[in-house]
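User: Second chain of the day. Same drill as before.
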Amino acid sequence: MATAPRPRTSTREPEELGRRLAAWLDTRLPGARVTNPSVPGSNGMSSETLLFDIEHPDTPLRACALRLAADPAAYTVFPAYDMPRQHRVMSLVAEHTDLPVPRVQWLEEDPGPLGAPFFVMARAEGRVPPDVMPYTYEGNWLHAATDAERAALQEASVALLARLHDQFPAGEAAFLLPEGEGTPLRRHVEAQRAYYAWVVGGLAPSPLIERAFARLEELWPADEGPAVLNWGDARIGNVVYDGFTPVAVLDWEMAAYAPREVDLGWTVYLHRFFQDLTVGFGQPGLPDFLRREDIERRYAELTGHTPRDMEFHTLYAALRHGIVMLRIAYRQAHFGEVEIPADPDGLILHHASLDAMVRGAYW
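Assistant: Same format as last time:
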C-alpha cells in the first residue's frame, strides 16, 4: 500500500463532477460558478471528496469541499453511505463542542444531480498527514518536523478526542446505535460481524479475522463503561493542521455511540499500522510519536477517565481495520490490480501484527 500504485477508488472524473455540480449549484445559488475542481491525492479510500471554489458575489463561502457517497461502480468499501447521517453528526458536533469541524452547508439527498447523495462544506486550508506515502516515512512534512513540533501536534490531537468525548451530550448520540440487542459495545461489535459477512460474501473467509473475533470474546470488558459520541475514524490523517494546530476535523462517516476506548483504540492502532509498515520497509519511522502509553496517560489527565481494557480495544481496532483492508484488496482484484492468493489472510496488510495481537504477543 505504501509503495505500490494507489488503488483505484472511483470511476468518476473530477471535471465531469464539476460540470454537474455547477448545474446543481445554479438551483441553489443562481449565477454561481464552480472553479478549480480537484480530488485530494493522499488520503481517503471510502466516500469521495471533491475540492472546488465558488465564484458568486452574494456568498461568503468560497473554498469548498464536497463529500459524495461512494460510486457503486467502484466496488464500495462499505455497503451503505448515509450522507444525511454524516451531515447531522457534523452539525451537532459544531453545535455542542469547540472542535474545529468544517461548517456544513448544503445537503442533497437526491442521487440525480451527481449520481449519489452529497453535502457541501467549507474547506479548511492547511496540511494533512498523508496516508500515501505514510507520514511515518522519510520525506514528508511531519517526519521532517522537530520532536517539539510533533509533540505539539500529538498533544493537540489527543485533546480533540478528550474534548469531543467530554463536551458532546452523550444522549444526543444515541441515534447512532446500530439495530439489535445489548449494550452499545455489543451492538458495535455485532455490526462489525455483519460487515465482515458482507465483505466475504461467497468468497473464502479469513481464518485470522475469525480467530480475532473469538479472542475478543475472551477479552470482553467486565465493565464496558458509558457510551459517548465516537468520531469513528479517529486519526491524524483526518485532521487538517495549520502548522501543528488542528483547524479541521474531517471524515465522520464511522461516527458511533460507543465507549471512549473504541476511539482511543483506533487512534493508537492506526498509528501503529503505519509505523509497523514503515519499519517493515527498512525505515525507523516515528517510534516516539503517538505511543500507546502516552496517549492513554494524556487522555486520562485531560478527562479524568483512565482508559481501560486497551488490549481488547486495540485488537478490536486492528480487527476492524483488517476487514476494511480485506474489502479494499477485493476491490483491487475487481479492477485487475492484484490477484487473490490462496490464503485470504495474505490480503490483510497487517496480518502479522493482527496475529500477534490475537496471540497476546504484540504489546
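The chain has ten helices and nine strands.

User: Great, on to the next one.
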